[in-house]
Amino acid sequence: MTDENKTFIDKHAFGISCVIISFFLIVPGFLEAVSLKLENFQKNNDYTTFFIWFNLWWVSMAFVFSKQLSAFFKKDKLVKRTLKSLASLKLTVFLLSVSSILVFVGTLAQTGAGIWEVVDTYFRCAFSRVDLSIFVPGEPSENLARLHFFFPGGFIIGGCLLVNLLSAHSLKFKINATGNRRIAGFIVTAIGLYLIYYLVEQGIKTEDIPSAYVDSYKRVLYRLMSGLSSTTVLLIGCWLLFKKRAGIVILHFGIILLLLAELVTAFYATEGTMTIAEGDSVSYVDISRDFELAISEPQQKGKSEQSITVHQSLLKENIGEWQRVEGVPFEFKVLQWFKNADIKGHEVNDESFAGLGKEYKLVPVKESTGVEEARVSLPGMIAEFKSLDGKPLGKYVLSHRMYIERNPAFAQDIEVDGKTKKLMFRNRRDYLYSRGTNTPVEIKLIDFRHDTYLGTSVAKNFSSLINLSDKEKEIDRKVLISMNNPLRYTGRTFYQQSFAPDESGTVLQVVHNPGWMIPYLCCVIVGVGMLFQFLLTLVKFSRRQA
């Protein structure tokens, strides 16, 4: 079809598509802003809402492009035409532009929100909700604060880029080998893929206790060399199949693997801390961004704590409403929730509260952005409790700051049916178990060292000498954890992070990420692909010069 025969819609199909998509991303947010009923409906019926707007979107697209779609479906090789549309370079540029806008919006949002809240709200989601107030400096007005629009999140953009890349490969990267070369190429490529899978699996399963005694650069070098060997096998297989395009295939495979690694990290990775005083033993990790209300019996000497917990999602879900949770011996109502709060003393005791609330009050403070000295927000709440038969049990101030500071007063007494229980607002606990068993793994701090350069306060060394005890595997040994020399055990990595203000204990950062080995492999795979293509181009250039 010549340019003269093209209609306006034919000429501007891509631009019209962008306008229609933008319309259906902007309108739902503005409807929520002008109507509280619509806002509540869309929040309480998210799947129904998505179904309605999605159907309106594709019906609008079908109506505008009816002639183009009918011509598209009448032609032969429908699958190939669909792949060509998905593999379009325009789509690649569009997705990269959208991702750049998302990064810009996320950066602006971080001026008023914590880094992890921004990650969850904008990047680790299908659709992000963008408040217009982030584009306006200062405190927004009430009307402006309600205005927002929806934007493709990291999952949508990443998924579309993945489809775009795979579609381009299916069309442009044809297998050139035939006969025995083709068979050999498939076999060698399969071996290379298996070796990469094996390295990832070993990274998950291997209990690498001695790693804390090995220099960090040696461990990193070992992982990179392991990745290089498997990537070399994969490169040989791709060269047999794709010949001169083998390097590009390898490079794109590394990018795809990196996208999948982020997906694994988003869904399965957790990060927490382990605070241990010298001489004490701990068998759990405090998950950094996850909180719970714990109700426990007063701990008896020689016995482990038995607790019933209520996750933060239930605490924040219905603020101002009484809630009853199975197993919890009372009903509770969260009166106020603070994303980040400090705790200060009253000038006069407030007798309307029980426990700490008589002497202390919560003061809201700006959320931590994750880059200043206070790197995490410390939430708090005011909650009211009553027994299951309706007897008032009091109103309590619950502060996570007191738990972080290890203030003994953070565990408050509450009388329920004549029994005294402990009420604690703390991080969700992830208990350490020997792999495949219910036997707890204990870590005891023997000695913590904080060395500085002579005559200065500059840190020279942080180190924690611990005793790792795993009765199931008959392990009882000392391990030194220091800066850049972590311990890897129970599928977690224990880093030296910080220490108690009086240096009486240590704070270990504990990361659990099943896909931790994949980024190492991706760096090697992408590097090998780029090096192969560079050398190939260099050889061609040299031959031309000769």
Features:
alpha+beta, 546 residues, 8-stranded antiparallel β-sheet, 4 domains, 19 strands, globular, 4-stranded antiparallel β-sheet, 26% strand, 16 helices
Write the layout of secondary structure elements.
Layout: H1 8-11, H2 13-34, H3 36-44, H4 46-64, H5 66-74, H6 78-86, H7 89-109, H8 115-123, E1 127-131, H9 142-146, E2 148-152, H10 154-172, H11 179-205, H12 216-242, H13 246-268, E3 270-277, E4 281-282, E5 284-296, E6 307-311, H14 312-317, E7 330-338, E8 341-345, E9 360-364, E10 380-387, E11 392-399, H15 400-404, E12 412-416, E13 419-431, E14 442-452, E15 459-470, E16 475-482, E17 487-489, E18 492-499, E19 505-512, H16 518-545
Antiparallel strand pairs: 1-2, 3-5, 3-19, 4-14, 5-6, 5-13, 7-10, 8-9, 10-11, 12-13, 14-15, 15-16, 17-18, 18-19
Give the % helix. Answer: 40-55%
Spans of 5+ residues with little confidence (pLDDT < 50)? none
Instruction: State the end-to-end distance.
Output: 46 Å
Global outline: globular
* Total domain units: 4
Q: What is the strand content?
A: 25-35%
